Every structure is written in C-alpha cells, then in structure tokens.
Amino acid sequence: MRIFIGMDDTDGAGWATSTARLAREFGDTLADEARFIGSVGHMLFSGVAATTNNKASCLVVETERADALDALLQRAAAYVEAHAAPSSAPGVVVAGEEAERLVDFGREASRREIRGEEIEGALAGLRMAGFGARRGLVGAAAAVGLTARGWSGRWLEFGGLRGFERAVQVRALEAQGLFLVSLETDAEAPAPEDWVDTHGWLRPQLAAGRAVLPLRRIGDGMWTTATVEAVKKFR
Can you name the residues that pair with 93 across neighbouring β-strands? Predict the structure, then answer.
C-alpha cells in the first residue's frame, strides 16, 4: 500500500531545520515500519506569508501493514511536535487511496490562498494532526494531493540521490529508479555508459508519478541536468 504523508509550516525565522529537511529526516526513521521511497517538495501560492517561500513536503512510503495509516499519523505527528520550530503552526496529513480527494485542493493551493471555510470541507474525514494555529494543514493537504496527482513538484530525496557524486553514469542513476529524459531536439536516449554532470544538485521532477531527470547534451557521451538553477531552492 502506498501512503502519502504531507507536512508544512514546521519552521520559523532563524530555525535551522526546514520542513523539507524535517520530512526527509523523518523518512529515515521509518525503516522498521515502512519503506521510504522519497519526499517531494511543492511550491504553493506565493501570496501566502511564509518563512522563506510557501513550500510544503510530502513523503511517499509503502507498507503492507493493515494499521499503517493510523500508526504513521501518530508517529509523524509526534516527530513534528518534537522537532518543529516553537513559532511554527505545523500540519500533518496522512492518506492512502483517499489522497485522490485532495488533487483539486492541491492545484488550487498552488494558485491562490485557500479560505478558512474551504479547509474544513476538504479535510473532512481525513487523518490529520495540527498544532498551534494549524496553518500547516493547508500545505500538508495540498502536498499530498499534488504528489498523488504525480505531475508537479521535485523529489528532494529518492533512492539516496543525495549520496551521488557530481559526475554519475547513466546506468547508476537508472539503477536507483530515476527516469532520464533528453530535452534535445532529437530527444535521443542517454546511453548507460554516458556520464551526467549533476552539479551536486540531483532534484528529479515528479512526472507521471515517477522521478524524471531532464538532461541536456554537453558533449559526446556527456550530459548535464537541465534544471540546476531552478532546483537550488529545493534544499
């Protein structure tokens, strides 16, 4: 069973741990309970006041446990409460198949500010936990919906991508489950023995529900990631 765990508004001014980092670190604690596939960062409506930018995170995990949804909500809520900034207002949303209910909500949250009366209806019946003013519930739910949709956001962790060196062979990236796509006019397929200059920033796009890494050719058997500058905000 695939499960989505959305988190938002866990940081604060001067706080060292961003929501993206907190989500990744929480994922690393789940080895005894679920398989941590990765975490996805989503940029939401920029008109909402935020510590740095309006970005929410969603973990993707898989497990066969029948009670996993309730257990993961309890565990995620406890972790966020223990590690979030004192000034934050975190939200956590955990969903399985019902994540599809939040797709339209997530798309709206990426375009405009969500009104208070919209939140209750969208989250009715879902597994969630909020702290303080619970502002983070909007972002957490939106991140779940957008990740379930599978066509936006960037993977901030996926198959240990942060452990790769700057130069990586195509075969090594594909072995981790990344789907490499050429953006060149002829869209040729990178060969397994070709090399990719990642610039130290491997942040695949979430596309078609997969981790997709767009590439540009820079020489014979040499490629570079096509979104280096754009991904630097997704630490």
Answer: 6, 128
As a whole number of angstroms, the distance between CA 70 and CA 76 comes to 10
- pLDDT for 230: 44
- Pairing of the two strands 222-225 and 195-197: parallel
Nearest to 184 by CA among 194, 175, 176: 194
C-alpha dist (Å) from residue 190 to 122, 201, 207, 216: 43, 19, 18, 10
Q: Which residue has the higher pLDDT, 231 or 79?
A: 79
Q: How confident is the model over 13-53, as pLDDT tens digits?
A: 767 789 999 999 999 999 888 999 999 999 998 767 665 66
Reduced to 3 states (helix: H, G, I; strand: E, B; else coil), residue 35 is strand
pLDDT per position as a tens digit, 116-163: 778 888 888 999 998 877 888 999 999 999 999 999 999 999 988 888
| Range(s) of the chain covered by CATH 3.30.70.2200 | 2-152
For domain 2-152, say whether CATH 3.30.70.2200 is its number: yes
Dihedral sign computed on CA atoms, order 87, 54, 62, 93: positive
pLDDT confidence tier of residue 233, bands split at 50, 70 and 90: very low
